[in-house]
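Late entry, written up from scratch paper. The run itself happened at the end of the previous shift, but nothing got recorded in the book at the time, so transcribing now.
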Amino acid sequence: MIHLSPSPPSSILPSLSYPYTLKSSSGSPLFVPASSSPSPLFFPASSSRRRRHIRLRLAPRAAAGGFSIESFQSVVQASSVLAAIIIVHEAGHFLAATLQGIHVSKFAIGFGPVLARFVSPSSGVEFSLRAFPLGGFVAFPDDDPDSNIPPDDANLLKNRPIPDRLLVVSAGVAANVVFAYLIVFSQVLSVGLPVQEPLGGVLVPDVRPGSAASRAGIAAGDVILAVDGAPSPSVSSLVEVIKISPKRPVAIKVARKASSLDLTVVPDESSDGTGRIGVQLSPNFRVGKVRAKNLAEATIFAGREFWGLTTTVVEGLKQTFLNFSQTAEKVSGPVAIIAVGAEVARSSSDGLFQFAAVINLNLAVINLLPLPALDGGSLALLLLEAARGGRKIPREVEQRIMSSGILVVLMLGLFLIVRDTLNLDFIKEML
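Output as recorded:
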């Protein structure tokens, strides 16, 4: 985020819509859809034989279990990842400006009161760490009455040509995108990419007590191999058979440990007349890892994974905004994101790679939205200026637009911090 006013800015980095959840190889939720659908949503396959071992859900779970050393370490790891992502974003703005010779006055991580400050003796730029961890900013002395830089100085941001300013404003997003790719590339080279190898059948992770499935003898952990004589069902085909068979016996063959069982289930009738048996269903797969043999293969694997993550992030945010009335409560701020990241770190250190990549991409996409106080809002104003033949938008109008957006985003960010903090498990136990 960039800031042009002389006073400490009240703008904040946007709260992240965080509709994702990773699954560990053991199956415990890491970075998970709080969707009502019982079957998980998977990332697109990188090939016809392999699928990424990532699944999504729309509500991050707070880390449970108090303040053990392991919990503290995982929180530190997640916080470090989030801080690094913010630093990279702001460094993009900072480098794009300084490499062009544009004057910069401040580089800050966080907002509000200054906790630590350092002023570079060579450049005069103030680097600071601030109290509220809602993002960060790079400030320019364009309208600072205390600045000794003449207002007509060619190296003030406001006096630079539109292409120069577009580069500065968009550099934060570009930095996050590049950083996300480098994270995925590092994962490919170091620990490898988790993949899913289909095993056939449909896994039953959970069975509701007293349901039709429970009465028929289906148990959690069973793998459904056939339905009404049709072998190797998919989740969708199995659901369809159950839906059209209320109160009608359905023959099901399941695998349980080393044996197979032939069972008959009679689906209950739902209020809409369709059948239901009260189980959670998931594709059956084995988790493995694929490692690159050389840099060329690593580049290909990283590109596929990066594209899959990007597509999923964009689609998730698209659904969030298109159905905002239903998904507003699933938008999360930094507290919930760190809680999810801590759960990822405790369950699987490998998951931190994709946690970091997804947050980078999420931040990049959100910042491109043409909303006041976001980089996309500044880009929109610059493009409007270009459409007006280079005639600048009155500074008062621009400041009103940005200030209104800053206030809304600030209030939203503080609300999310309070709400997400109160939703943490150990806070709930204390209340």
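Residues 3-67 have pLDDT under 50 and may be disordered.
(Scratch paper discarded after transcription.)
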